[in-house]
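Researcher: We're teaching a course module on how sequence relates to structure. For the next exercise, students receive a sequence and then see the predicted structure as tokens, so they can try to spot secondary structure elements on their own. Here is the exercise chain.
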Amino acid sequence: MKYFWMQRFISGCYSNGSRKMIPSIGRQLSSGAVRSYSVAPMIKVEPTRGLIDEPVKLEIVHLVPNQQVTLQSRLLSEEADWWEAYAHYVSDSEGIVRVTRDESLGGTYTGREPMGLIWSMMLAPGSRPSMRLRKKDVTVPYLVTISVYNGWISSNFDKQAVLASVVLERFYMAPGTTRLEIKEHHIIGTMFFPPGSGPFPAVLDMWGGGGGLVEYRAALLASRGFATFALAYLGHKGVPQPLQTFDSKLSYFEEAFNALNNHPKVAKGRVALLGLSLGFTLALLMATRIPNIHPKCLVCISGSHYNPLQDGKSTIFIDNCLISDKIKYTENGAMIWREIPLPFPDDPKLMVQVDKIRCPLMLIFGEDDQNWPAAESAIEIQKMMKNAGKDHLLTTISYPQAGHLIEPPYSPHCRESKFRMHSLNRTVTVLWGGEAKPHSDAQEDSWKKILAFLEKHLVLQHPAAIAQSKL
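Model: And here is the predicted structure for the students to work with:
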């Protein structure tokens, strides 16, 4: 489903915070010479308003030929932290820089990276350490300011004169997407629906052990045509404490699945499960242990088939991570958890019996996941499903040098961040792993594959299209 956004071109030389305006079209260089512009430099962006997963075409025109310039991106998070990226370019013989064509020669990324000013963002100097950029209010966009400076600079941007600036609006919700808060019976979460009356194929979206209600992936999936239920199940004030322990029948999750499947705007029987980290394990448990639900497919990201919920409590295992003798630490004290469940136990009661899965399953993981042994788990899952004659249901996608937090495209890479231990009322720092460039590539590629997988298994095709595909 495609949405057409209002597109506009904004240019000019104007004040941005404490940055200096350029009073004229002349610019004095450090050598004392004056660089003159017949027309003021201008930034062209297409689109200036778009979904977070939508690529942006960025072009700077009216520069002097072969001019060295620095492009900078900057945004203020909802937690009041500044994030920024920058890159060094040289204009061509016509005084143009095209980010889709030209290579960055330095900065937070190098090479030809059309979206580098977004995915390479990091905390600005002086910010709180180990923060993670996550959208809380999906009804409003991120505002990203792109600025152009003369010369190659790497710091003190606020003291430099801006040649031109433009503000990008990056949305998780497309126009017409609706948001519905759910507080029915015991279920807490938010449903998102694409424009129109439906019925739509649907996704039950579950995040990890950090808890809370995370809406941005669900909002983006709805913007791409899937009714999506972002489910809160842990560490959320709206979920009563007794429900944050998991009974053997997984009743809370069965009720959530049925609430989505039975919604009048959802195509009944065409519901997928999507989970990351602990959500990965929950998706597998739901597909194998709840006899009365029948997901059409599963998408499991950065987790394992090791079951940390044998005792019925999610928080006990997570909190035990703090005392495990298998924990390792980085030089700055970040925790590495990946070896805690290794080697996987032989007791089948401690593992999800994935050989019972009856629907297509997509596994996605980063080979540099330092939080959880996702790669080792994928190997074991492959073996189990092959031995059960079900390997035809399995799609496995691995990404070298990618870490644990594989998110929607162009989300800034988070190698480590603070992690809340809810039952202990304590915050620690956890190493997630991955390197910025390959991790970003993994996010972009996996998102395309996730959408294609969901489209294939959830969307009913016209009979003529089905017949054509068999030719």
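Model: If you want an answer key for the exercise: Residues 191 and 229 are 4 Å apart (CA to CA). Confidence is low (pLDDT under 50) at residues 1-34, 462-471.
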